[in-house]
Amino acid sequence: MTKNELLETTAYLKSKGFEAPEVGIVLGTGLGKLVDEIENPIVAHYNHIPFFPLATVEFHSGKLIYGEIEGKKVVVMQGRFHLYEGYDFIDITYPIRAMHELGIKKLLISNAAGSINLDYKKGDLMLLEDHINLQGGSPLAFKGVSEFGERFVDMSQPYDVDMRNTIINTAKQENISLQKGVYVSVVGPQLETKAEYRYLKIIGADAVGMSTVPEVIVANHLKLPVAAISVITDEGDPDNLEPVDINEIIRIAGEAEPKMITLFKKLIKQL
User: Fold this and answer.
1) Cα–Cα distances in angstroms (integers) from residue 110 to residues 12, 66, 134, 231, 253, in the given order
2) Would you tell me how many other CB atoms lie within 10 Å of the CB of residue 167?
3) Pairing of strands 125-133, 178-185
4) Tag placement on the chain: N or C end, fewer CB within 10 Å?
5) Following DSSP, what letter does each residue of the chain receive, concatenated?
6) Cβ distance 123 to 232 under 8 Å?
7) Distance from first CA to last CA of the chain, Å, rounded?
8) Which ranges of the chain have pLDDT less than 70?
């Protein structure tokens, strides 16, 4: 990744009409319906955007969509990238850097996750307060990183407090049950064993997934305030562990999605 590549990416998107977006949004597995809320959408397919990776997961669609939500200009990633697809950390986080280069001032992220905290049930939403990176690397560990920001990034407060408070208050007003907790990111794509669920609980995780953390690290590198919500789609109870069906995960994510859309829309309105 070079500065010139980023500039070529953003020049292409600007030529398509992606002008001065205020908010960037990353949509997770089974969470694509927010795009229906976008007014006057302009679509750029990943395979047409210079230097963009391609989405390879069948339920991640691979489009960058620009338009308006609640009167704010947004750019939405419908389909994200994962280590388990064979990408590296720079690929995974390239779209975050591109959206920042376009001008976004805030970043919202969603994902589907499995609960480790057994008080959290399928269909619950969890606001990320902190995270644990078990993906075995960093999106900042490359030679030219200081061209893009400081090499040593403080992570004492990775998730923006003001946006978190707005989401918490909105959930209360809208009567939406909202858990709060620690997300742990693993490589995948295999799901966890009983022993792994026990281990993740011991180290302090409330939910586990295969994304989000690299994007949050890069957002902090860019000094870009970020908030993230997990939809709990399966329960990792090691004493009663049942086989996980990916279609069931997508179904539960879809059922919980309207609550997440409400929280994101109300947050965008107040930004």
Assistant:
1) 26, 17, 19, 8, 11
2) 26
3) parallel
4) C
5) --HHHHHHHHHHHHHHT----SEEEEE-TT--GGGGG-EEEEEEEGGGSTT-----STT---EEEEEEETTEEEEEEES---GGGT--HHHHHHHHHHHHHHT-SEEEEEEEEEESSTTS-TT-EEEEEEEEE-SSS-TT-STTGGGTS-SS---SS-S-HHHHHHHHHHHHHTT--EEEEEEEE---SS---HHHHHHHHHTT-SEEESSSHHHHHHHHHTT--EEEEEEEEEE--GGG-----HHHHHHHHHHHHHHHHHHHHHHHHH-
6) yes
7) 31
8) 55-61
The residue whose two tokens read 């994101």 is 264
Query: How many CB atoms neighbour CB 47 within 10 A?
Result: 11
CATH of the domain at 94: 3.40.50.1580
Task: Count the domains in the chain.
Answer: 1
Give the model confidence (pLDDT) of 135-170 as tens digits.
Answer: 999 999 999 998 898 999 999 999 999 999 999 999
Q: What is the spatial distance between Cα 172 and Cα 246, in angstroms, rounded to a whole number? A: 31
**Which of these, 267, 269, 254, lies nearest to 27 by C-alpha position?**
254
> To 10 degrees, the CA torsion angle through 153, 154, 158, 161?
-130
Taking residue 138's Cβ as centre, other Cβ atoms within 10 Å add up to: 16
The strand pairing partners of 234, in sequence order, are 114
pTM over 0.85, yes/no = yes
* Residues forming a β-bridge with 133: 185
Pick the closest to residue 136 from 52, 214, 48 (CA basis): 214
